[in-house]
Amino acid sequence: MTSRTLALAALPTLLLGQTPGETPTTQTDQKALAVTIYNDNLALVKDQRLVRLPKGEVRLAFQEVSAQIRPETALLRNLTDPKGFFVVEQNFDFDLLTPQKLLEKYVGEKVVVVSQKPNASGPGSTEAREEATVLATNSGVVLQFADRIETSVPGRLVYPRVPANLRARPTLVITLASGAEKAQALELSYLTSGLGWKADYVANLSADEKTLDLNGWVTLTNQSGAAYPNATLQLVAGDVNRVRDTPRPAPMMALARGVDKAAEMKEESLFEYHLYTLDRPTTLAANQTKQVALLSASGVSVRKEFRLEGQSWWYTNAQNDLGDKLKAGVFVELDNTEANHLGMPLPKGILRMYKRDSEGRAQFIGEDRIDHTPKRETVRLKLGEAFDVTARRKQTDYRALGRFGKYGSSSESAYEVVLKNAKKEAVTVLVVEPIHGDWEILQASQDWKKTSSGTARFEVKVPAEGSATLTYRVKTRW
Predict the structure, then answer these.
(1) What is this structure's pTM?
(2) Mean pLDDT in the chain?
(3) Per the count of CB atoms within 10 A, which of 43, 116, 151, 175 is most buried?
(4) What are phi and psi of 101, to 5 degrees?
């Protein structure tokens, strides 16, 4: 039998990714698959297969597991006949078969080099075969022939076999004791990296800016090196504590994109987290992103807010101009309640908002990131800076009042904030002033509230196409 015949004879083993003496199982044996994905690049896989096991000690090659499996978390259970069944040893073979890996495994071994030699007697060529030893594969290949050494391959290489420690696909090899010889339902569960999800929200603001329609999507990303066909999919929202080890670097892969317009996901509490379950099986292909529907709500009431915020360091010494043509931030708030057509825990993600123009075309008006938000909480979004609502702020007076206590200082300062509104309707601007140390406002032209120990808030009404001026004087000790 020639070397080429030997190489061809090895191909069935190559395709199956198994070695002699092993009992292989692939996804063709799969009877059920469940994948639970967490926020932080972590997933729990439960893979149930029907495998015929002989009685006694068995080397089970569990193929097509995640390439980023955490082997120390793997747990194999026998669901059919657990009596007399136990695991002795398990090994994860992630050294995958590639032309380069195959060449590296043959350092010090003999291969056959097949090349084309011109016919000396006429046109055409003849296939020539030479045996060579692979000396090295560092930054290229070094081959030793019977009469020479070459640093490039003068043809194609033929290998007699596939090394036992190379696999066609990631494989968990488990040595186990089987109590019976029959087909048995086995469930392998393990944690893996390479699977992740995030929530994305799209909101369409009404013309009067008082309500919006909200749609939530879950974006799934699979870079684990395996596919998960017809899987029961669950997502966990929350911050699960994990012990951090240095991860094995994951390969960067191109991603295909798909959209799965499923029904909304079912939500329930799980410990101190929230669990979302897709109502039907779905397939997570390798190197794919997929979107599935999370929620849909119409007529959600919102509140728009113009907000101008100051700085606490302004109050500790004399200041020059504190800013001209300052822009007020634009915020939108909504209540996550059933009365407001929501009332479900919202996973963290990015909410993007749109509004239709006079021609009915949707235009992007801003986005913000929301954290995990329980029901009956308020979602607050900053969408941008107002174009038509501006301000000029300056310090109009400052007096140092000397020492305060053994180490502190005291001062008195006054401020003027001129707010301008170029819009055709009146607006209310919240002027929020963080004030350093122990303080009291001595005089103010507008009503104000102490919203926290270090914050004063003024609500200033600014007429349409007009302006309003806020003045106040504050005494601070720090």
Answers:
(1) 0.74
(2) 88
(3) 43
(4) -65, -40
